[in-house]
Amino acid sequence: MRTIVIHPHSVLRQCAQPVAKIDASIESLVAQMIEVMHAEGGIGLAAPQIGVSKRIFVTVGQSEDGGDEKVFVNPKFLLIDGVLGAQEEGCLSLPEIRGSVRRQPHAVIEATGLNGELFTMESAELMARCWQHEVDHLDGILIIDRMSPIDRLVNRKRLRILESAQERE
Ligand SMILES: [Zn+2]
Prior knowledge:
169 residues; binds zinc ion; 7 strands
């Protein structure tokens, strides 16, 4: 099983490549992403987080067991609006780091599903925030870039430990 790529790995900072065609390799990548997302207890996971620089993310579904996962290939926002609101976020690629991130609360997203068909989804709840977090990953943006200076300060020790651990490898 693939494992989570941790900051400051360079793949997390790349702008991920669009997917040209949904084939068996993409299906297998998505299956691995879903497996890792559940194993790590995340509500969403972007492909760069398992080291693959492609524009794909997955989220848990709305059912109680989370088994109806959603797959977003080449996602694009058709709309993001509403008053910016701060809420605490964490990230599987930034273990033990949390901070409040300001985002707009309402989003309409368009993406291709694993069946190759384009779909749109709308959310004014947690998923709108989750989608923005995951699309940020596809653009090489992490929550530490969006945190307030105070939250960055609060997390600076933990961040330094992560960054120096990587250097030693
Ligand atoms: Zn994340």
